[in-house]
């Protein structure tokens, strides 16, 4: 564990699931979990969480605010399989059944710093109109077998989804030793070592 | 029309509310008017013939509409007024009103004064007309037209009038736009905009009313009657009203005054006719006012100044860019309009087209598409902190990734600059420069001294010829000599010519030098000063007159002789020619003569005519004989030439020497002009800029120009570079005084070769010249301007500024002497720069860039503008490529950029352990599939990670015999492994194939069809169900998908309920008094026979009060748990044991779990307590006992079964050894449960178990892949239909119609069933006992090892191998066993079926059903046991379908337990058959072989294997007892070994007692506990496991001895039956 020669790098993510916009729904709660590759291991913090139920604000924004904190630290040897946060939002339907209102996933930002992400959320669609009706009626909407499905690309071609709303996330990312292991993700990691800054992705 | 127009401008300018209101009104009106007009037009056109050909309503209407919309409003209601002098109409009208008021007042006063004035009528009658004139002082034409329209009698007159009026209007001067004319102003203030439409054809009365109305609105009131006439009169009188207006007013004033007219505003109404204007007039007027630009193309000459031809810049090669797209017609319109409006043509370019900038539209958007969600304003305002980073220049093309940037260095040494011409040169300078140049030339020539060289050569050649002519070596062939001499001579000739030319040049050069010097001298004399220090000295070198002359003469003579020779040669040749031709001529002549003669003769002898034809041609000219050249002439020639080109003999050799020793006249002695020149020179200074890749990198200091026009810099520039230089340029700048800096010239320096390094580079001079024109007002000759040396100005010279830069460019060398040169691979710059053109890439692909021809072709095809600056690099590249200067590869590179992105070589990449690990993991190689946290560095990866994998790879070809011992089995195992791998690879894709149900959980759609109609209702009913019912029903546990589990998450729960019929201890022999010698002394056959014996309890043995104290020990993955000890042969434990489960490699994927081969061993032991007290006296004070445990039996359940079944619940037969020494089944002792009748049917003990996994895992699903099949399509459809129907009725019953064979093809299941011959020797054992034969066959089948498919083909599917494959593989699961057994039974002539159903513990399985004489037997193919249909302990619990060789029957009975169903398949109500009358059995051929061929197993090999196994097991037992000494009792072992074949023969039955007796006899002194194990042989590991699980080794009695014997009985086809007898012996003391 000599600091000079690290064998792993650390990624610390904290932030929060700030708010959501689901124009049609109310009284929602959300779950989050992280999906990461084989070379990653969480070292501290919670990998999963389930939030309180929130109701829409009464003002014009109609925002659903959770402010649900995320705080987790990963260690890894390989940026492949960079952690993704998977969100799933649930809420009651007309009959009071708890149904899913949206799935969404986004990679934890690569570069250190403060990042805000707005994720569009979607739900799987019923396979037929009749299904749709019955699922609505019975309160058993189609769900993913595992929310982590939305973080992977394999097998998605068999599903049909519908967009539902947005969830806004705030990340504060700190990395350690990435530069030493030869991964250059941004200027803030280059303490004292000058290097060209990489584009930080498309700004929101 | 004019007033209307003006009106428009007024309206638009004024913006009072009033106006707007009015406008609204007018609009309405105007639209109305228009409509009406349109309606009316055609008839009018007919009647009045006013519409001429020009008026084309269809065309013009819309535009008129647009333009004249405001102008046309209320056409008739405008009181048209002739415009007048601009004296402010407002004032005027005001004045008028005042005047009226005044008049009114006056008239009142007058009337008051005059009291009675008779005849007021006429006054009143008159006054309106006056008034009218006064107020309606506007142009009468409109009124005129009004009149016209309703004055029928005076039609013609009015028309005349109308025309007059029109003319008047026309002649009216137009008010400047923007200013309201008087009448407009008037109209504006006075006119009320009447919405009344104009109807030209309405009756006069209506018109009158209109008129009245109008007038009411106006200020004026006029009497209705007689007015018109008056008006006309007035007009007639007025003539030109505009001019006379003031006068009129004046007179009217007077009249009013006189008449005392007092019109009250409301009193009078003027009735006027409606104003009307014909369409024709309209159009006429509009045509004047409106301009309709034509759409036709404007001829080019109109757009250009006169006599100018259009220039097309593009054709001239200038870049123009693409014009924006504009419709042609629109362009024409604009051009026409521009031509009309601004005639000066400034809008048109040289090519006669409208000027246009290049189209700014880019074909591709350069801005990223906006995101779907707009960033909120807040987000945009949010500030992000970014640490300031020092920018380090890092270009993309950093050369050599390892080197620090800028390690390459180019040294440019600029030593100086010399002007060979400069504007400030004086004439003398010009000459001096010339002289210097000539002198340089002379020096160069002198140095080369070509003339001398040639002279020497000539001499040598002559010598050679001399020697050749008189050879000293006679052996040379004359021929060759002749040839060489000839060659020499010709060479001499050539050389002489060259020498002469050289000498002549030398001489002329010398002459010129002298001449220039003379000119210079004369110039110096002439101008009386000297400007240059040049001085030419001609040194004369004395020569020896005589020798010189001789040499000269000799030379001449030699030359002459040579020439002579030449000439002679030539002469000879010519002479030869001459002779030939002369001969010819002569012949001809002769012939001619002969002819003549003949002619003469012919006159006498006419027959000679034939000869006349001989020379029909022309008369040949008589050849002139060549004259021999005179020697004197030749000499003359030679001498002349020599004199011309050579130094005369005796003449001194002139050697010019140019020196700078001359003195320059100082300034004060020079004339004014010269001084000015010198001053000018002094003011000038020069510096150089160094441009690298056309970027300025540095510049020299500015140096003053010296009087000799030399500038010395002596500067060295070290350029640190990254790239291979593209160009190196020096720019020469000249500064005059302090002001201007002019670029004189650019000098391009060659980029040095890679071999040129500093200190080795020569100083080179590069010439430059400038094209600037400079004229100076002093002595300086200027540049680019003609000047002359002559006084008369003739012989003019034009010199341009030029000069030379001396420099040297070289690569610098590093500290260690290596040149700092970029690698040459960098030099292919063309490609990179050309890549900027994305278009080219998109059109021909990147690969096209390497193909120059293709690229050039593309450029030609796409009409790439060569002048477009964007295309410059591409064009350059193409030009280079096509000119063939650069190397064009003729190969095709697929990814030509790949090399740039290869940051490491492939060898290095392959060597990287980390990369390899990542690759292997990504390929899902089993060893690495779940490798977590691959280290970040290679050095952290241990080599041993790969060892297993590499070993496996190596072993693929090598057959490992260590584990298998038996080679055949090793081969089979290998084969199995290969099949498995191939199948796994085959299904790897299928594994990654997802269905919707894999991803999305969705409720099944409720079936709405007739049959399932209740389901929806049921589910609806469910809605009404209470959330928490009072009597909750059991719900299924939640299943867990296996992927996100880790070690410790999964537990195996084993619930041991109870056991039945545990063997009990045999009571110690009565004759034996010692308790320790318990069981072996008594040997009674009756003891084992049921019901015959009641074992007396021996109360004297204190520790064996009960018959048996069994407990259960369960071991799984080497974790061992055991229950408490119960008592009695039917114990009840009800204990739950918990085992942690670890998946191999921590991989909890379904596939991995399915391939877990671990078994759950459930062993039942008897706990025996032995009193070890030596001394009976201590018995009162202490208890010393030793616990021994005796293995009674075991149940083995594979984990894969538990995994696929999720739970196992049932009663299992305990696998007890055939011989259990010291124990017997106690059948009659404990009858309290009354199960005797049931139990009597079966032998053996039973254990009730419940096993499950917590949490419940989702069992792997078989692959849904639809395999290709060779079956008939119809049959396949039928199978699907059949299965669907069956599944609909009984979803839980498994219906099997098609199976997958080992090659992955779908095969109809009945094809597997076919009579097959069992081994011959089995049939021969009991030739007369079919039942025994059947049992033997079943035993043979059961001896083939069992290997579940899920294990071999992890998670893939159930594969059915044919019987021969099965026998070759010697491994298979229930199906294969069942199929083989069924086939054997069919061979034996039994009625046999395959039973598909559920059994414990296997789950879905296959059994065999046979029909014996009057009952059915159910055979377990894996154990070889058979059960009657009504056997309660039959492991088969349900039957779903029966498969025969020619049909499939599906169980449609209510129950599926074999106890409760009828196996009569002929009853269609009970069994649904696949082939029926509607679908008859097509006679499917079998996939099985015709006959099975059995090889006899090698007995020797079996014996050898037997020894090896025994040895290995002994070693293992010793290994398991590391802390104790393991002694082997050889005597016992040999006894056991003898006994084992007996067991095999009797199949483990009825040998116990004999055996015991024998043992007793031999091992009388020992307490013996042991048992034989029997199992089929597959490999060694299961044997070891089995021995281990018995726990025989677990004795720590100090003096224990062991015995172990192995017997292998070989059956045909390498089927081996293994017996292991293991025992522990304790010597009794």
UniProtKB/TrEMBL annotation, chain A:
Molecular function (GO) terms for this protein are: hedgehog receptor activity
Q: Which GO terms describe its cellular component?
A: centrosome; ciliary basal body; membrane; MKS complex
Q: One Pfam family name from the record?
A: B9-C2
Compartmental location: Cytoplasm, Cytoskeleton, Cilium basal body
| Keyword Hydrolase attached | no
Has keyword Heme?
Answer: no
Q: Name one GO biological process term.
A: vasculature development
The free-text function statement in the UniProt record for this protein reads: Component of the tectonic-like complex, a complex localized at the transition zone of primary cilia and acting as a barrier that prevents diffusion of transmembrane proteins between the cilia and plasma membranes. Required for ciliogenesis and sonic hedgehog/SHH signaling.
Family, as annotated: Belongs to the B9D family.
Name of this chain's protein: B9 domain-containing protein 1
Q: What is the lineage of its organism?
A: Eukaryota, Metazoa, Chordata, Craniata, Vertebrata
Q: Which gene encodes it?
A: B9D1
């Amino acid at each position: 564990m000599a600091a000079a020669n690290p064998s792993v790098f650390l990624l610390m993510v904290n932030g929060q699931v700030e708010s959501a916009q689901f124009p049609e729904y109310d009284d929602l709660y959300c779950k989050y979990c992280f999906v990461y590759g084989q070379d990653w291991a969480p070292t501290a913090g919670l990998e999963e969480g389930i939030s309180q139920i929130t109701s829409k604000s009464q003002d014009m924004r109609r925002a659903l605010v959770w402010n649900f904190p995320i705080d987790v630290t990963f260690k890894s040897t390989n940026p492949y399989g960079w952690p993704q946060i998977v969100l799933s939002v649930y809420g009651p339907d007309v009959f009071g059944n708890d149904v899913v209102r949206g799935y969404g996933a986004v990679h934890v930002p690569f570069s250190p710093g403060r990042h805000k992400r707005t994720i569009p959320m979607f739900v799987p669609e019923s396979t037929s109109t009749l299904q749709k009706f019955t699922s609505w009626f019975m309160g058993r909407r189609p769900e993913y077998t595992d929310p982590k499905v939305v973080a992977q690309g394999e097998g998605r071609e068999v599903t049909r989804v519908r967009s539902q709303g947005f969830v806004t996330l705030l990340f504060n990312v700190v990395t350690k030793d990435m530069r030493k292991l030869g991964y250059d993700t941004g200027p803030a990691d280059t303490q004292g070592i000058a290097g060209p800054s990489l584009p930080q992705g498309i700004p929101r | 029309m004019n007033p209307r127009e003006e009106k428009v401008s007024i309206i638009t300018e004024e913006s009072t509310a009033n106006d707007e209101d009015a406008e609204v009104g007018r609009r309405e009106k105007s639209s109305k008017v228009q409509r009406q007009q349109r309606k009316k037009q055609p008839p009018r056109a007919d009647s009045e013939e006013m519409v001429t050909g020009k008026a084309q309503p269809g065309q013009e209407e819309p535009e008129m509409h647009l333009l004249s919309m405001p102008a046309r409003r209320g056409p008739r209601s405008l009181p048209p007024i002739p415009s007048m002098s601009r004296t402010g109409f407002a004032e005027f009208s005001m004045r008028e009103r005042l005047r009226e008021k005044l008049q009114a007042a006056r008239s009142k006063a007058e009337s008051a004064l005059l009291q009675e004035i008779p005849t007021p009528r006429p006054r009143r009658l008159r006054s309106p007309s006056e008034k009218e004139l006064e107020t309606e002082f506007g142009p009468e034409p409109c009124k005129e037209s009004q009149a016209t329209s309703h004055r029928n009698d005076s039609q013609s007159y009015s028309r005349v009038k109308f025309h007059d009026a029109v003319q008047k209007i026309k002649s009216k001067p137009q008010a400047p736009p923007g200013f309201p004319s008087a009448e407009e102003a008037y109209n504006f203030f006075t006119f009320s905009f009447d919405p009344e439409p104009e109807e030209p054809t309405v009756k006069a009365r209506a018109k009158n009313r209109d008129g009245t109305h109008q007038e009411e609105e106006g200020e004026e009131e006029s009497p209705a009657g007689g007015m018109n006439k008056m008006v006309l009169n007035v007009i007639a009188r007025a003539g030109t009203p505009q001019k006379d207006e003031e006068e009129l007013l004046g007179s009217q004033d007077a009249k009013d005054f006189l008449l005392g007219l007092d019109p009250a505003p409301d009193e009078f109404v003027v009735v006027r006719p409606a104003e009307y204007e014909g369409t024709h007039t309209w159009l006429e007027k509009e045509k004047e006012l409106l301009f309709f630009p034509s759409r036709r193309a404007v001829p080019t000459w109109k757009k250009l100044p006169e006599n100018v031809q259009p220039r097309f810049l593009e054709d001239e090669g200038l870049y123009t860019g693409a014009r924006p797209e504009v419709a042609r017609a629109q362009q024409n319109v604009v051009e026409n309009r521009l031509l009309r409006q601004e005639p000066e043509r400034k809008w048109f370019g040289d090519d006669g087209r409208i000027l246009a900038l290049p189209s700014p539209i880019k074909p591709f958007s350069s801005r990223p598409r906006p995101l779907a969600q707009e960033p909120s304003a807040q987000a945009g305002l949010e500030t992000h902190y970014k640490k300031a980073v020092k920018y380090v220049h890092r270009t993309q093309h950093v050369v050599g990734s390892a080197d620090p940037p800028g390690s390459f260095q180019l040294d440019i040494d600029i030593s100086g600059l010399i002007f060979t011409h400069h504007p400030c040169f004086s004439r003398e300078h010009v000459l001096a420069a010339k002289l210097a140049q000539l002198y340089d030339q002379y020096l160069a020539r002198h140095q080369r001294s070509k003339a001398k060289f040639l002279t020497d050569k000539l001499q040598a050649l002559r010598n050679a010829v001399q020697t050749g002519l008189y050879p000293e070596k006679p052996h040379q062939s004359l021929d060759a000599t002749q040839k060489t001499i000839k060659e020499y001579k010709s060479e001499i000739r050539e050389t002489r010519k060259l020498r002469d030319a050289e000498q002549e040049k030398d001489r002329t050069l010398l002459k010129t030098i002298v001449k220039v010097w003379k000119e210079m001298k004369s110039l110096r004399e002439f101008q009386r000063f000297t400007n240059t220090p040049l001085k030419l000295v001609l040194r004369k070198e004395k020569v020896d007159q005589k020798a010189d002359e001789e040499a000269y003469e000799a030379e001449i003579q030699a030359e002459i002789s040579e020439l002579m020779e030449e000439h002679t040669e030539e002469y000879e040749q010519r002479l030869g020619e001459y002779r030939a031709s002369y001969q010819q001529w002569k012949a001809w002549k002769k012939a001619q003569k002969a002819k003549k003669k003949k002619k003469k003769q012919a006159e006498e002898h006419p027959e000679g005519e034939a000869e006349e034809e001989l020379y029909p041609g022309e008369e040949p000219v008589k050849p002139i004989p060549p004259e021999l050249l005179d020697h004197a002439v030749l000499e003359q020639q030679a001498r002349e030439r020599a004199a011309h080109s050579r130094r005369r003999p005796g003449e001194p050799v002139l050697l010019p020497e140019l020196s700078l020793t001359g003195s320059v006249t100082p300034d004060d002695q020079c004339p004014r002009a010269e001084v000015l020149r010198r001053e000018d020179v002094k003011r000038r200074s020069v510096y150089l800029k160094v441009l690298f890749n056309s970027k300025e990198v540095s510049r020299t200091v500015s140096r003053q120009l010296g009087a000799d026009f030399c500038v010395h810099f002596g500067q060295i520039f070290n350029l640190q570079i990254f790239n291979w230089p593209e160009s190196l340029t020096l720019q020469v700048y000249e500064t005059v005084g302090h002001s201007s800096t002019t670029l004189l010239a650019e000098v391009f320096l060659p980029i040095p070769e890679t071999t040129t390094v500093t200190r080795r580079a020569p100083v080179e001079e590069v010439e430059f010249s400038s094209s600037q024109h400079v004229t100076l007002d002093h002595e300086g000759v200027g540049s680019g301007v003609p000047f002359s040396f002559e006084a008369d100005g003739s012989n003019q010279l034009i010199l341009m500024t030029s000069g030379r830069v001396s420099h040297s460019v070289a690569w610098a060398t590093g500290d260690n002497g290596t040149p700092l040169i970029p690698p040459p691979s960098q030099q292919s710059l063309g490609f990179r720069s050309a890549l900027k053109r994305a278009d080219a890439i998109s059109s021909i692909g990147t690969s096209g860039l390497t193909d120059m021809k293709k690229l050039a072709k593309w450029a030609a095809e796409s009409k790439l503008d060569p002048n477009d600056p964007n295309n410059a690099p591409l064009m350059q590249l193409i030009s280079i490529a096509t000119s063939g200067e650069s190397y064009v590869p003729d190969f095709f590179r697929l990814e030509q950029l790949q090399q740039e992105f290869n940051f490491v070589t492939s060898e290095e990449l392959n060597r990287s352990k980390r990369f390899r690990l990542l690759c292997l993991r990504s390929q899902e190689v089993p060893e690495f599939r779940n490798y977590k946290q691959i280290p970040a560095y290679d050095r952290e990866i241990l080599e041993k990670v790969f060892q297993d994998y590499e070993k496996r790879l190596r072993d693929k070809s090598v057959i490992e015999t260590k584990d298998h011992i038996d080679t055949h089995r090793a081969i089979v195992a290998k084969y199995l492994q290969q099949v498995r791998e191939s199948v796994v690879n085959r299904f790897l894709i299928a594994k990654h194939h997802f269905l919707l149900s894999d991803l999305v959980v969705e409720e099944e759609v409720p079936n709405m069809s007739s049959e399932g109609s209740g389901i929806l209702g049921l589910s609806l009913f469910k809605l009404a169900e209470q959330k928490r019912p009072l009597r909750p029903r059991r719900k299924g546990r939640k299943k867990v998908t296996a992927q996100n589990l880790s070690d410790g998450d999964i537990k195996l729960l084993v619930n041991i309920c109870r056991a039945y019929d545990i063997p009990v201890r045999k009571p110690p022999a009565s004759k034996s008094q010692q308790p320790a010698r318990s069981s072996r002394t008594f040997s009674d056959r009756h003891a084992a026979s049921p019901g015959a014996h009641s074992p007396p309890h021996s109360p004297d043995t204190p520790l064996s009060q009960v018959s048996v104290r069994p407990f259960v020990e369960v071991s799984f993955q080497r974790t061992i748990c055991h229950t408490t000890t119960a008592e009695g042969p039917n114990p009840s434990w009800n204990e739950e044991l918990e085992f942690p489960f670890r998946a191999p490699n921590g991989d909890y994927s379904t596939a991995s779990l399915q391939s877990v081969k671990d078994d759950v061993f459930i062993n039942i032991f008897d706990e025996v307590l032995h009193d070890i007290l030596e001394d009976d006296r201590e018995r009162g004070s202490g208890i010393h006992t030793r616990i021994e445990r005796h293995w009674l039996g075991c149940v083995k359940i594979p984990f894969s079964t538990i995994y696929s079944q999720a739970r196992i619940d049932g009663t299992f037969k305990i696998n007890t050894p055939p011989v259990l020494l010291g124990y017997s089944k106690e059948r009659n002792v404990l009858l309290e449960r009354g199960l005797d009748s049931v139990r009597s049917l079966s032998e053996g003990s039973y254990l009730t178990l419940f096993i499950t996994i917590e949490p419940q895992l989702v069992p792997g699903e078989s692959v849904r892949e639809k395999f290709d099949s060779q079956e008939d399509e119809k049959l396949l459809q039928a199978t699907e239909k059949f299965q669907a129907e069956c599944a609909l009725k009984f979803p839980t019953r498994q219906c099997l119609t098609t199976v997958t064979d080992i090659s992955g093809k779908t095969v109809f299941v009945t094809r597997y069933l076919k009579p097959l011959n069992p081994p011959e020797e089995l049939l021969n054992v009991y030739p007369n006992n079919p039942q025994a034969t059947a049992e033997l066959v079943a035993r043979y089948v059961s001896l083939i090892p069992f290997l579940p498919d899920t294990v071999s083909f992890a998670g893939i599917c159930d594969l059915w191998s044919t019987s021969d494959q099965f026998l070759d593989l010697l491994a298979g699961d229930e199906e294969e066993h069942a199929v083989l057994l069924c086939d054997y039974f069919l061979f034996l002539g039994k009625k046999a079926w395959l039973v598909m159903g559920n059994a414990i513990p296997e789950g879905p399985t296959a059994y065999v059903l046979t029909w014996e004489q009057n009952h059915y037997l159910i055979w377990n193919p894996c154990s070889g046991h058979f059960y009657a249909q009504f056997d309660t302990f039959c492991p088969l619990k349900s039957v779903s379908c029966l498969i025969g060789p020619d049909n499939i029957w599906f169980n449609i009975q209510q129950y599926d337990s074999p106890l409760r169903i009828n196996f009569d398949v002929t009853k269609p109500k009970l069994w649904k058959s696949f082939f029926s009358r509607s679908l008859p059995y097509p006679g499917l051929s079998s996939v099985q072989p015709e006959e099975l061929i059995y090889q006899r197993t090698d007995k020797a090999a079996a014996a050898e294997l037997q020894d090896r196994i025994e040895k290995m097991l002994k070693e293992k037992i010793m290994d398991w007892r590391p802390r104790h000494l393991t002694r082997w009792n050889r005597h016992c072992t040999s006894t056991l070994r003898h006994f084992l074949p007996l067991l095999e023969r009797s199949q483990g039955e009825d040998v116990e007692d004999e055996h015991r007796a024998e043992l007793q006899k031999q091992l009388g002194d020992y307490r013996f506990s042991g048992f034989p194990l029997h199992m089929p042989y597959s490999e060694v590991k299961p044997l070891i496991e089995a021995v281990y699980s018995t726990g025989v080794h677990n004795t720590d009695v100090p003096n224990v001895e062991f015995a172990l014997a192995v017997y292998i009985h070989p059956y045909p086809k390498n089927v081996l039956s293994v017996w292991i007898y293991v025992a522990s012996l304790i010597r009794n003391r």
